[in-house]
Amino acid sequence: MIPRSLAQPLQRHLSRGKSVLLLGPRQTGKTTLLAALPAAIRVSLVEPRVRQRYERDPSLFGAEVRALSDRRPLVVLDEVQRVPALMDVAQGLIDDRRAQLVLTGSSARKLKRGRDVNLLPGRVVSLRLDPLTLEEDSRASLSDLLTLGALPGIRTEPSRADRSEDLRSYVESYLEEEVRQEALVKQLAPFSRFLELAALESGRIANFRAIASDIGVSAPTVAAYYEILVDCLVAERIEPITESTTRKRLTKSARFLFFDLGVRREAANEGPRLGQHRLGELFEQLVGLELIRLGRLHRPGSRLRFWRAPEGPEVDWVVEHHGVYVPVEVKWTDRPRPEDAKHVATFLAEHRQARQGFVVCRVPRPLRLTKTITAVPWQSLAEAGGAVFDALG
Questions:
Q1: What phi, psi does 166 have (nearest 5°)?
Q2: Count of structural domains, the chain
Q3: Which residue, among 271, 255, 131, has the nearest Cα to 198 in the 3D structure?
Q4: Which of 32, 226, 277, 370 is 20–30 Å from 182 (CA)?
Q5: Which residue segment(s) compose the domain that 78 sits in?
Q6: Mean pLDDT, the chain, integer
Q7: Can you spell out the DSSP letters for 151-200?
Q8: Do the domain assignments include residue 53?
Q9: Is the whole model's pTM more than 0.70, yes or no?
Q10: CA angle at residue 95 from 91 to 97, to 5 degrees?
């Protein structure tokens, strides 16, 4: 088992008596992470009999916990989104100090929909478990990261053929279990085609109209499909920076990143042999995903954005935290030049909130390009974000 960085903050919050809502895509290791906890009760709603029992009478869960002799037992409730009514029961247990709960979920969709939604605001600490970061496992080759992704079960599978088969099963089971069974869409065929196109377009500016035309649905339907991907933790929505005192026009459409590059490749029906241009695009996505994951772990409250002027300068990623910007350009090169950082320089000149920028590339060690811009190896992101997050102050 690969040690997870989230184990320390999880234990810290539990030690101070807090309950936790742990969200994360399927197969990122939530159950494994919680296996070492000394829980008095573990309930997995993945099991049909267990799920059906609580669906018929959610109050049974509260009665079982209250029957325990421990004063505030630790209770693990896995895949809580499958019976959303249990969130109300959990609230009662927390408010009455009858139990300390760890709730897990692989989708926020059913927890967020409807007038009876209860995400336990102020009562739980929300944590997110993502696929493996470079900090957790830096042994994978760049080629494997770009084509096979970072799900723990995939990363530790020795057979490359089995990795591909497991990724294929992941995409198929997502369509069957998360979409069809949960009735998130009325017709699965258009959504299945959308999933393929969304995977192919991952990392690019979202064009709802073009995708809608291709699959024969409306643009609002495509927007709703993207919302499903985000709510089910399959995609990350990246918003642009639109505030400017020097430019009248900036891109306002969002970008979407698939949460894992191996799942993305399989969903896109894309082979493992890719050209240099495509590798460069995926390299950019890899860096973006790593910045998101490291921000959640080490800079809660930070978020990833991007900056683009139509037919003008653009910066791949901008890390924002408490009003401070750090622009990051990604280049598929091992010989970066000052010209590779020209858009970062433009961003720094136009934004007082930004004082230092970076070019993430394939150099063996950091290289100063200008007084305020440094080229850094992609492997340095394994150091809790390294210089990029240090620049936030």
A1: -65, -40
A2: 1
A3: 255
A4: 32
A5: 7-128
A6: 91
A7: -HHHHT-S-HHHHHHHHHHHHHHIIIIIIITTT-SS-HHHHHHHHHHHHH
A8: yes
A9: yes
A10: 115
